[in-house]
Amino acid sequence: MSDQEKDSKASLFAGLTRLAKAVGIIAALVLVEVVGAAMLIPSAEETEKLARELSRAAKGEDAEIEQQDGATVDAGVVTREVELLTDNITRFNPDSDTTLNVDFSVYGVVLADEEEDFLKEFQANTSRIHEQIMLTIHAAESADLANAGLGLIKRQILEKTNRSLGRPMVREVVFTKLNFIER
After folding, report:
1. Residue ranges per domain, the chain?
2. Which CATH superfamily is domain 76-182 in?
3. β-strands 170-182, 98-111: how paired?
4. How many CB atoms lie within 10 A of CB 6?
5. Helices 126-139 and 115-124, interaxial angle, to 10°?
6. Residue 11 half-sphere exposure, CB side, CA atoms within 13 Å?
7. Of 111, 80, 107, 102, which is closest to residue 161 (Cα–Cα)?
8. Helix 151-165 and helix 126-139, axial crossing angle in degrees, nearest 10
9. pLDDT tens digit string along 68-111?
10. Which of 38, 50, 113, 172 sits at 20 to 30 Å (Cα–Cα) from 182?
11. d(Cα 119, Cα 138) in Å, to the nearest integer?
């Protein structure tokens, strides 16, 4: 075998090696993208649920809610409402020389499976939870109380209640009564 044939075979081998490396790198990138996409693509059940929710939203309907044995079934999740506090607060504001009187009832929505655990924790932490709700209502501005959805107050009560319980057991906060008068 001559030197020219050896150089020709060596350059052919080097070229094939570079080509194999390039194909390997591209295959690895495609594999990483396929795995990443598979992890991000929702399952068939999640897609079906989202489609139902979007369809109801397009029709202007609320989420699918049924009543069953005193519990609410919302998209397959059974929840119960538990009274957290019903009270009346009177607060004087010396800056504006006004008195704010707030009469309210607050309920927490918990999973039906966790209701027994919630009641035990609530029993052990009732005073702490009541204090946190009272402080939240006391700190609320008239504009927050006048907000139709009460979003800020509900989020604050939800966060403080779950922190007092030690874990997130309350899924949602609901006001059944909220009357306030500023004099």
Report:
1. 76-182
2. Band 7 domain (3.30.479.30)
3. antiparallel
4. 10
5. 80
6. 5
7. 107
8. 160
9. 555 555 556 788 899 999 999 888 888 888 888 989 999 999 99
10. 172
11. 25
Q: What is the dihedral of CA 163, 164, 165, 171, to 10 degrees?
A: -50
Burial 65-85 (b: 16+ CB within 10 A, else e): eeeeeebeebeeeebbbeebb
Q: Are 157 and 132 in contact (CB under 8 A)?
A: yes
3-state secondary structure of 77: strand
Query: 27 is written with which tokens?
Result: 């295959």
What phi and psi, each to the nearest 5 degrees, are found at residue 78? -90, 125
pLDDT, one tens digit per residue, over 134-171 is 999 988 888 888 888 888 899 999 999 999 998 889 99
User: pTM score, two decimals?
Assistant: 0.58
